Amino acid sequence: MEYHYSDLCMPTDHLLTGPYTADYAPQYMVPEQSAEYEVRASVLVDGGDRFGVSAVVFDKYEELIWMGNQGGHVTSYYGPGMQKYTSFQVHETEEVRDIITVEQGIFALTKTSLRHQIRRGIPKRTFKSPNMTDMQCIYQVSSSKLMMGGHQNKLIDLDLNKMAETAIPIQEEGCAVLRSGGGSLVACGSANGMVALRDIRTPATAEHTFAAHSACLSDLDMQGDLLITCGFTQTGGIPVAEPYVLVWDVRCLRATSAPGAGAWSLPTVSPPLLLHFLPAFSGRAVALSGDGHVALLHVNASGAEHSTFQVDTQSSSCSVMDVSSTSQALVFGDQAGHLHLFSPQHNHEPVFNNFSRATEFADQVVGLPFVAFTDTTFQYSSVPLPPLTTGTKWFNELPEAFFKKVYRRPKPIDPEVLKTMKMQGPIGYAPNPRTFKRNQMPYIEDNFDDLHPSKQNENKYVAQPIPKHYQKVDIRYNKHGPNEELEKCNKTGLPGLETTLPNSYCNSMLQVLYYTLPVKATLLAHTCAKEFCLSCELGFLFRMLDTSGGAPCQANNFLRAFRTVPEAAALGLILPDRGADARVDLVALIQSWNRFILHQIHYEILETRKKEKALLVNSPPKAVRIPNLNVKVRPVPPQVMNGQYSEEYQYTELEFLGPATEFECQEELREDGWTAREDGDADTVPVDNHELPNNQQADREESEISQLFAIGRHQFNRCLKCNKEEGRESVVLACALQYPAAVREGPEPRGGFLELVRASLAARRSTPAWCEQCARFTPTVQRGRIVRLPPILAINCGGATVREKAYWAKGAQKEMPETKRGGGGKPCRYGLHCARPGCHFKHPDRPSPQAGSSKSPTQESNCIIPQQLLIRLQSDGDVVINDKVESPTEPLTPNSRADKHKKKNVTTQSEEEYTLSAAVVCVEDNPKNLVAYIQTAAKDVEPVWYLFNDLSIVPVSADEVVQFGAWWKTPCVLFYTSSSARLAPVEDEPRS
């Protein structure tokens, strides 16, 4: 029979040479023309001089042959040339009984253990069990299950995924061989000659059990429904090897006790010891005797002539054999430590598998090329230079900096240009300072001095990095499992707020309101029947934060109600989606939100109180009066909510938008709007006193929010033409800082933080306004006098323009003498009534700027805000603010400069000491982020500052809270709490 497998053979040109080749020459074998197979290679295995071969198997996935010897060593060989691939030790003393190959590696079975290793020799796991006493064979049931047997009364079913075993008791005397024919039956042969056919799905019960041989069983194999066995028979009490092979049809087995009954025999020249079917042929089997005689049997034809050949075992006996899946290769192992590879006569390059995958080899060591001395075309630069052992480099190796493309460094922008720059949208305009010549090179010239390390450090601009806990936190909160990343960000035990919902930019202000105890107590006690009430939702959110136990919470209900408020949408406080936070000005947005929420809570409390009183007298509630701010507002018809009348408060643009032009007035609430008078328009009611009325009606119409945040002022408007003066009461809930003209227009910021707060509380400005007596727009001086200080002072810091942000970044400088411009000696048209700070015109009885500047002390730095403020309200309505740390010397005010003789009659009406309790900061990152500094303190515990960045909460120092000199940190909202509010007990329920 001739074999033609030349198309399936693999070339051996890619095999490695050198240390992987055998150090001996294969012996010469005389080919036999009558045999179908002939020897291709014969090698002495590792340890073959001391141990014999005990297991051999062809790899089912790669072109490898795996061998195990009696010393517990495993070696693999590649290809028909049997090139050694890997070699490793499996067990110290026990021999390798059986080997199977899987996709991830091999399983090597010893007497008491099962070892799993990858093909490169790295061990993965070792399985041992008390049930493994004398293991002999192994069979792969599926990709995740193995079955093992041995000279013991148990079969072991092993799950590879769980590495869990199941012991199956058997009645036979052990299981020495496990073979299957491809179906559901597996043949278990014991040493006493019994064969049991078991179903791999239910291996606990044998389907058929019969005696194959009377003495003992040597080997068996299955192909389909055919089973072949060989063994020994009992003759005169002595076991004798049977010179034939018994063939069984598992479909026609009969329950008989006579050995060999129901089978036919195939005689052989020599008694067979090992059997194996040829997988590529039907009905062909290989029978190997102990002396090396091999016979190719025709199992279905008992009278057919067999093909035979001899294996040179060198006077030793053959112990193991295996057949490749293609039947192109046979391998035999003997007790002398040799492996013999046979293939068909005409197939010199046999393959072990039809679809073998590539075997992974070690990287080859690249050597130097061989070049003839007379070769003139060889490029000697292609030969790499050997590495130097001293750590130095070759002279021709240039540093990496010479191979990088580096552009010329531009010169920094002149600071004078940045100081005088005016922004028009995204474009800045500045006059040319003429510090450079025309067509001068705008780059830094590189020379040898620039290469010096010290010079490089001078030219390098190192920006201050943004700390990690200030940056935007993006944490996916898992409600059903552990949150290790969240625990790293928040180790304080304080609850955070998630940012997964739209309009979550207000989380920092929500935390500030939560830790403002009077506000928290008011909202927790508020109840009403309104469907979308922000006060109710805030109270629900605060109660959820109280009971969270430090777990993060969501402001879902509050944000849903917040989106339904039409005033919030009109003010631009509702963002369309979560990604819109990076495209809006968060500095102006959070300040507008602060003003809106205080006004909204105030009017919701008043509305609820009016409805309760109306229900008591069984009459419909009266509508809350809309404050008159000299802005015409179209009336809105009342709406019905939950069966009750509801009239929403209509906010105007003047109340909520911050100052956009020079000294624009703050948002104001008419005092008559708070009292909601019913006797006609409140504008026509004259107000004579400068303080808020303290009668029963005023107390009845004030809410807890107005009692905490309201700043009472008396506003005077005076026409400079006819000297007509009008006054009215006004109240504001948040003080907006008004920056001086030098910040808005000039190049340098002037004045400290205390001066900004003082000028913002008692605002003075000159603006054209309508005068009824003159019947035209005339210059009008508007000034305000404080009549009441709030327990909690909320300050909106502005900072929306570039100049206002520069105020915090650069800090105040010492006032220098200003140069006189054209017409500096010209008298001011407003005279003593001029309220413009830094006016360059001449004023009577007012010292010149040069004289005043020489005595003016150095102001405090703008980048540091004071921790405590001492605000004194004088009898004339003026305000004196001092840092508590400094001496309480009164700064000069415009009124004191003009009328110094009147200062003796001014007395202090009231005095409040404020302490910084919270601050909302905008981090100028990409994307921008809003964080909050909050001072929390329990009873008898020193107050501690915390940085609230949504889910990230970390403690910070007090110095870090007041420092705003960094380019990336801009203050937005500040909260100063008076000492009386801190010491006062928190009421459980608001006053009725």
Beta fraction: 25-35%
Total count of helical runs of at least 4 residues: 20
Spans of at least 5 consecutive residues with low confidence: 1-18, 20-33, 621-700, 743-750, 811-824, 846-860, 885-904, 985-992
- β-strand number: 47
User: How far apart are the termini?
Assistant: 112 Å
Radius of gyration: 49 Å
Architecture of the largest domain in CATH?
Alpha-Beta Complex
CATH homologous superfamily heading of the largest domain: Cysteine proteinases
Q: What spatial form do the alpha-carbon principal axes imply?
A: elongated
Major β-sheet, in short? 9 strands, mixed
Instruction: Give me the secondary-structure category.
Output: alpha+beta
Question: What would you note in describing this structure?
Answer:
The protein is α+β, with helices and mostly antiparallel strands and 992 residues long. The chain has 2 domains: 40-344, 7 Propeller (Methylamine Dehydrogenase, Chain H), CATH 2.130.10.10; 504-815 and 861-983, Cysteine proteinases (Cathepsin B, Chain A). It contains 20 helices and 47 strands. Strands 37, 40, 41, 42, 43, 44, 45, 46 and 47 form a 9-stranded mixed beta sheet that branches. Strands 18, 19, 20, 21 and 22 form a 5-stranded antiparallel beta sheet that branches. Helix 5 (517-524) packs across helix 6 (534-546) and helix 6 (534-546) packs antiparallel against helix 7. The longest helix is centred in the middle third of the chain and has 31 residues, at 586-616. The model is unreliable at 1-18, 20-33, 621-700, 743-750, 811-824, 846-860, 885-904 and 985-992 (pLDDT under 50).
